[in-house]
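Listing S7. Sequence submitted for prediction.
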Amino acid sequence: MIMRRLAQSLKEQNWTAIAIEFVLLVLGVFLGIQAQRWQSEIEGRRSERAYLQRMLNDVDLSIQTNELNIARLKAIADGQGLVVSSLVGCDLPKGKRDAFADGLSDLAKVGPSVFVMNTMDEMLSAGKFSLIGNSTVRDEMNGLARDAKYQNNIFTAIHAQLAAAATTTNQRVVWTYQDYRTPFDPVAWGDLSIDFPELCEDRAFQAAVSTIRYLTNAQISLNQRAIAAQREAKIVLERELGLASTTASSSP
């Protein structure tokens, strides 16, 4: 429409109309480009918020999983402590035999700290991490990714030491239970065959159990460090999303 009127004005050499039509044409193009830019910015902010919420969900899942792991590892470490103290003192009351057997069954059941980074990995692989406009959020999440790699490297060393110690303990314990057991099922004194007096004199076995207990406690510390970093990330993400942070009130 504007182009048709502009062409007609040129033919008639109506310079005033030409100027008006030209201004309207330029203004229309400018407004069209600006509208596209505004729409793109709106969609970018919408995508950014969706990614931030998914990152927050990942961090929440990481915290919850690591809290469960800490509770499990503390119980395992307590059982390992009973095994060590019973063997060193060569004293195992009948009432503690099942706990002793359960402590033996939990040797070397240690896993790495959990860092759920699915959303961040997806954004990095798709080249969308720059959608996060706040540099503080980007730095916080990059720091969390670095901590995940650092802890994974440490756990590799822990796992190697656990495997070496578990080789010693596995050679001296025979499990006799008949039914199917998962790694999380408790076992009882009647489920194993050992020579307790002999193990009381076996310093290599006691040292191996003690080493496993030490490494279990080391992994508890790493889980606690992971949770501390994840709670900091949660605060930053909640602040960016405009959510009321619950992290400070829920921290022990």
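Caption to Listing S7: primary sequence and predicted structure tokens for the chain studied. Residues 2-250 form one domain. The mean pLDDT is 86.
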